[in-house]
Design goal:
Radius of gyration: 27 Å
Helix content: 25-40%
Bound molecules: adenosine-5'-diphosphate, magnesium ion
Oligomer: single chain
CATH class of the largest domain: Alpha Beta
Strand content: 15-25%
Number of domains: 4
Number of strands: 21
Distance between the termini: 35 Å
């Protein structure tokens, strides 16, 4: 049967294009789109028995549907069964939708319950109108939730995957040689693919099914094979030897501070790598605030001083902008041209910048991942610095290597946002050499961390007021925690309004992902310049943002965040000489996991300790619910959760590539990336 996506029922060009964003290019790829988590829709919960924050399937008749205008246009539909009543709330909806939910219509819906003392609601539930004479059966297996993209519904994905399973499963190739599969005790591939897309209900309790183990194992093997290949390839590649340290020395002299011993050591390590005509592949780890940017700048100065180009990639535009501002201050006096390649630029300006990159007038190019897209042609790119990456996958590293000019490939310096436990660094970044900054610059104020329940928010506001009187500044972070973007947005705005009304004489900024990049930058710059006392923000400010005068970090819903994220956010304060405080606000009740996280973060300020703790805490309990995809952008394996499998895998697969070259090739292709053209070794 055809493997073409278009031969699936209901799939046309529009859907095909959306699927390609998920790296799905044919039906077989659909089978390898791995669920992020599962939902239990095998039971209908009586409406009277709903409890807060529970994800449930309910069924009932519409009592009343109406559109209200309270601040914004909202569709409310009240649903009841024999046991109780619940309100469905929609912020974006069509008139047709409103009509269809007419009185007495039977509706089945799934969503997360929000229960207060006065109301029970589900916001933006998935729902289905049901014919009472022909009630469809409930799911008999758990319902998978897939990574998706805008305009592609879960229902659509599920139905396509079902069809693809029917047509392709029999022809999916088993790539693990039998002897290896036996030694690793893993089940056959086809069975596991079938099970991963519709696991029996018991899965939820079991956590780690044999099917999952099989797929995780296969993916880890593929990744290890890819790492080895990168390492081997790298060593065979040529790079430009960067030997001129004049500009580096000039920059060092001109800095307003002296480097810490760690920074000096790391700069030396980098310098030695750069002098050699083989590409550097180095991972730079250092705790939040340890001063990685200046180290990167010194490496960049060596490249620029040697008449070559350096690209500096940041995870967000906000951060790219900040780096641009810093680097301009450092490099302008040296007469070295720095440009910022923003994603949205007027055509003329863009053309000019692209031109200056191509003809080599710009030596230092800063931007986001757009730096490595088609339109950008470098004149003589010799160094790539990748900043603050939570995830910088094997596939990205490979594709960077393909950005070669003539015969040589750029040196790479990869800086992590959070220190990685040693075992993980060895595996996730096994192909890289490693440098560590293990001290903070002198003269930093301490950061105290306190955990308070949301009932004490008023007290927090008083504390904030005191600090503002001392001319310090405050971050107030509302993380994105709701499933609906609309609600997230509301949460930030509500907090902003609330703080405005409480802190009347203060000026309060707002920055979130929905603002366009110009407004974001302006909000950040205003805050940095001290024009605002408080900055209410989503986690867009999570990494990198550097404002030395900020001394309080308030984090709402801190119980929902992971340890590294909390540590990153906390790292936004304590950057100047002032004593700082990080206030973690939580909502009761706290799960035991959340309790452990909050106490770990309160106890320690050491990123290396926190990352070890993070690894330890992320036990199997979080498996099915976890959103974070681990460090290296894996589809199903989670390097933190599954690292323990690696020693055995590496032992058994030491000679895999030599013994099974064809399978190795196909495994890398299947799991690590479809679009990558490997440099042939
Ligand atoms: P991170 O490692 O988190 O990226 P940054 O590079 O943003 O940290 O550095 C944090 C702040 O510390 C910046 O304002 C930077 O200029 C400053 N800094 C870096 N190195 C030193 C140093 N050796 N002494 C004093 N301040 C430093
Ligand atoms: Mg940084």
């Amino acid at each position: 049967m055809s493997n073409d996506l278009r031969s699936l029922r209901g799939v046309g060009p529009a859907i095909t294009e959306k699927l390609s964003k998920l790296d799905v290019h044919n039906q077989a790829d659909l089978l390898f789109l791995m669920p992020i988590r599962y939902e239990d829709r095998t039971l209908v919960t009586p409406i009277g028995a709903l409890s807060h924050d529970q994800q449930v399937l309910i069924q009932g008749r519409v009592l009343l549907t109406n559109i209200v205008y309270r601040g914004r246009r909202t569709l409310l539909s009240q649903l009841s069964d024999d046991t109780g009543m619940v309100t469905l709330r929609f912020f974006s909806f069509s008139n047709q939708q409103a009509k269809n939910l007419s009185r007495n219509t039977l509706v089945r819906c799934f969503g997360r319950v929000r229960k207060t003392t006065t109301s029970v609601e589900i916001i933006h539930p998935e729902y289905q109108i049901i014919d009472p004479d022909n009630i469809p059966p409930l799911a008999s297996t758990l319902t998978p939730i897939y990574p998706s993209t805008k305009g592609l519904s879960q229902g659509k994905l599920r139905s396509m995957i079902k069809l693809a399973l029917d047509s392709q499963l029999h022809s999916v190739e088993e790539l693990l040689p039998k002897e290896i599969a036996d030694l690793l005790h893993v089940m056959p591939l086809r069975e596991s693919l079938e099970a991963i897309h519709s696991p029996p209900k018991t899965e939820q309790e079991e956590g780690f099914s044999p099917a999952k183990l099989r797929l995780v194992t296969e993916e880890l093997i593929a990744n290890q094979l890819a790492l080895k290949r990168i390492k081997r390839t790298t060593q065979l590649n040529k790079a430009i030897a960067l030997k001129n340290t004049k500009e580096k020395n000039n920059l060092t002299r001109q800095l307003p501070f002296t480097l810490t011993n760690s920074q000096e050591r790391v700069v030396r390590e980098i310098e030695e790598d750069l002098m050699v005509p083989r590409p550097m592949m180095r991972l730079l780890q250092g705790d939040v605030g340890s001063g990685k940017t200046v180290v990167a700048a010194l490496a960049i100065a060596i490249a620029a001083g040697s008449s070559a180009q350096a690209a500096f990639m940041a995870p967000t535009e906000l951060l790219a902008e900040q780096h641009y501002n810093n680097l301009k201050v450092w490099f302008d006096p040296l007469g070295i041209e720095v440009v910022l390649l923003k994603s949205k630029l007027p055509a003329k300006e863009k053309k000019q910048i692209l031109g200056s990159i191509e003809d080599g007038t710009s030596s230092i190019i800063i931007g986001t991942h757009a730096l490595f897209q088609g339109a950008v042609n470098y004149n003589n790119l010799a160094l790539v610095v990748v900043d603050e990456q939570h995830r910088f996958g094997v596939d990205q590293r490979l594709s960077l290597m393909n950005k070669s000019i003539s015969d040589s490939v750029p040196h790479q310096l990869i800086m992590t946002a959070t220190p990685i436990p040693r075992t993980l660094a060895m595996t996730a970044y096994g192909d890289l050499d490693s440098s560590v900054i293990n001290e903070l610059p002198k003269g930093r104020g301490t950061i105290e961390t306190v955990v308070v329940s949301e009932e004490k928010r008023e007290g927090v506001i008083l504390r904030v007021m005191d600090e503002i009187k001392k001319n310090r500044q405050i971050y107030w972070v509302c993380p994105l925690i709701e499933e609906s973007e609309e609600l997230n947005f509301e949460a930030v705005e509500t907090t902003h309004k609330n703080l405005k009304s409480k802190l009347k004489s203060c000026s309060i900024g707002l920055v979130h992902g929905k603002l366009d990049s110009l407004k974001k930058t302006k909000a950040m710059l205003d805050f940095k310049k001290g024009k605002q006392d408080v900055l209410v923000a989503t986690t867009v400010i999570e990494v990198g943002v550097d404002v030395a005068n900020a001394s309080i970090m308030v984090i709402e819903n801190s119980e929902r965040l992971g340890l590294s994220q909390l540590h990153q956010l906390r790292g936004r304060v304590g950057r100047g000489e002032h004593k700082s405080i990080c206030i973690l606000i939580y909502k009761k009740p706290l799960s035991s996991m959340a309790k452990m996280r909050l106490s770990a973060i309160r106890e320690s300020n050491d990123g290396f300790y926190i990352s070890e703790k993070d690894l330890e805490l992320r036990g199997p309990g979080e498996l099915l619910g976890t959103k974070q995809k681990g460090i290296i952008g894996l589809k199903i394996a989670d390097i933190a959760r599954d690292a323990h499998l690696l020693p055995r895998i590496n032992k058994l697969c030491a000679d895999f590539e030599e013994n099974y070259p064809k399978q190795a090739e196909k495994l890398i292709h299947r799991w690590v990336g479809n679009q990558i053209e490997y440099r042939k070794v």
